[in-house]
Write a structure and sequence with these properties.
56% of the residues lie in helices and 13% in strands. α2 runs antiparallel to α3. It has a single domain, classed as Rossmann fold. By secondary structure, it is of the alpha/beta class. The protein contains eight helices and five strands, in the order βαβααβααβααβα.
């Protein structure tokens, strides 16, 4: 089987990390070699960049700086973690990837999608996920979840409600523009119910890739 690259996207509080953890457990139980990683981060360099990006003390950061830092962390991540895992025929489950930059810095911040896409090509080359799972949830519901864990609230969480609504809409637009590459899943349901839908979706991708 060739390596498989699956990314999880969604607005704040959608439950990505929980669903990635559950899927990884299921796949490992079936004998797959799984790499779980995240953005920004995933490498020592990327995690240091993540700290700068999400620190509440970085409130003065402009969208262009934000984009370039995210893309720098992503380039390191691709070369150090993702590509080697795929070359070893592993299943890579990544919490956010290129589409998060399009949604947050494009939809949320209002930067040019054309410019953002050009930067992403420079950062990741031709690498594209085999599947993007969008865990979709109403902004108010997702933010309520995030704010319930005060210790994990970061600079992005504290953006205004209008920003987060633009992010969610950008995600939905991206998924509708390329439906064959996405699976949109209602994330405002019991965890186990969502996990079952994620599992069934990924099973189809693994069968297609193996075939």
């Amino acid at each position: 089987m060739a390596g498989v690259f699956i990314t999880f996207e969604g607005p704040e509080g959608a439950g990505k990390s929980t669903q990635i953890r559950l899927l990884a457990q299921q796949l490992e139980a079936q004998g797959f070699q799984v790499v779980v990683t995240r953005e920004p981060g995933g490498t020592a360099i990327g995690e240091r960049i993540r700290t700068i990006l999400l620190d509440r003390g970085s409130a003065a950061m402009v969208p262009e700086t934000e984009t370039l830092l995210l893309s720098a962390a992503r380039a390191q991540h691709v070369h150090e973690v993702i590509l080697p895992a795929l070359e070893h025929e592993q299943v890579v489950l990544c919490d956010r990837f290129v589409e998060s930059t399009l949604a947050y810095q494009g939809g949320g911040r209002g930067l040019s999608f054309e410019a953002l896409r050009a930067v992403q090509v420079f950062a990741v080359g031709s690498l594209r996920p085999d599947l993007r799972i969008l865990l979709d949830i109403e902004v108010e519901r997702g933010l309520a979840r995030r704010m319930g864990d005060a210790g994990s609230v970061n600079r992005m969480d504290e953006e205004g409600i209008a920003f987060h609504r633009r992010v969610r809409q950008a995600y939905r637009d991206l998924a509708s523009e390329e439906p064959e590459g996405w699976r949109v899943i209602d994330a405002d349901r019991p965890v186990a119910e969502i996990a079952n839908e994620v599992r069934d979706t990924v099973r189809n991708i693994l069968i297609d890739t193996d075939g």
